Structure formats: structure tokens, C-alpha cells
Amino acid sequence: KQEVTQIPAALSVPEGENLVLNCSFTDSAIYNLQWFRQDPGKGLTSLLLIQSSQREQTSGRLNASLDKSSGRSTLYIAASQPGDSATYLCAVYPPSTDSWGKLQFGAGTQVVVTP
Amino acid sequence: DTAVSQTPKYLVTQMGNDKSIKCEQNLGHDTMYWYKQDSKKFLKIMFSYNNKELIINETVPNRFSPKSPDKAHLNLHINSLELGDSAVYFCASSQDPNGDTQYFGPGTRLTVL
Fewer CB within 10 Å: N-end or C-end of chain A? Predict the structure, then answer.
């Protein structure tokens, strides 16, 4: 059974520092991996989707890497800003066709960026 | 403008009541989902419909019944509400269920008293 773990559970950094968020999964046979952001009382916003054949994806200050063999993904946020304060969730897609769409989520990392 | 919308945003009700949550997406997607986020913030999938056909039905009490009148709508009806049903329910959609990016609605916070 796939388990998705995010460490640390919470992180506080001063503005301008780079953020490194970790996600690990127990079954390396994943299809894709998606990073989301959740603001308090709000829904999830998709940040990056990494396909299983890719090793990384970039969007602006965000860069996500994927190492399937070691069961890890890392989300880097460069030059953090107070507006980056949120909970970051990673989720994996299982590979089998009978599990399509069954995103499995980690518990998230709560990030606070202090001015 | 809203891509995935849900109504209501908040729902407070008594145990034993029946309630519905509605979801609509204007992205032209074929697949829609219902997720439950419990008090520990874990998100877990409940149901998924692809082209109005149920494709994911996780271990959920049969008091929960999804209905998809068309590809743009997926509603969730809950019978005989229990205290443990209190959670935030999220609707999502994607172009297809095959690992495509999922877009989430703002959530419905259900509180059962």
C-alpha cells in the first residue's frame, strides 16, 4: 500500500530564504506526482505536475524534482516571500489503470515566511 | 470565472439530517472527483466520475451517494448525517483520470451537531 510522507510537518523561515520541502513515497511505481498549495480555509491550487518520465519541473521561483528510484520528490521555492505562507501538499498517482485518478496525498508541510 | 465551484461553502446541520453539496466545473473536463479532508488535514478520495460514469468508489458508507447529471456537475448527497461526517469536502476535476492535473474547488465545510 502506497504511503506518502512529508517532512517537516511545519517550517518557519525569514523572508528571502530558500524553502526546501520534502515528499517521500513507499512505492516507486507511480504515474505522476503533483504539488499543491492550500491556503487556510481555501481549496488546493496546483503548483507543478511531474510526469514519471521527468526528473524535474520548473515554474517561476518553484522547482520540483522527482527521483522515483529513491521514492522522493523535493519542492524548492527560491527567495521566499510572506505570500508563500501556506500548506504545501504532495500527491502521487498510482500507475495501474484501475487506480486512475486516485491521488494519494501526504499530510502536508505548513510553511510560514516571516517578514 | 471560477473554474470549479461548490455550494454551499459552509453547512451546519443536526445529526440524522440529509444534505447535499453541489459542484460545477466550467473547464470542459471529463472527470470529476469528491475528496474528504478530515480534522487531521488528510485528503482522501471518495468518488470519481468520468463522462458521467462512476469509476472510483472508495470504501465510503453507502449513506454517501454521488450523482452526475452531466459532465460539468457532480453532486454529493449524504443521508442520516453522523458526527464523524464533519469535515471539509472538496470537489475536483481533470481532463481525464489518467494522471492529469486535478483542479480543486474551494471546499464545503460540513459541521454535524
Answer: N
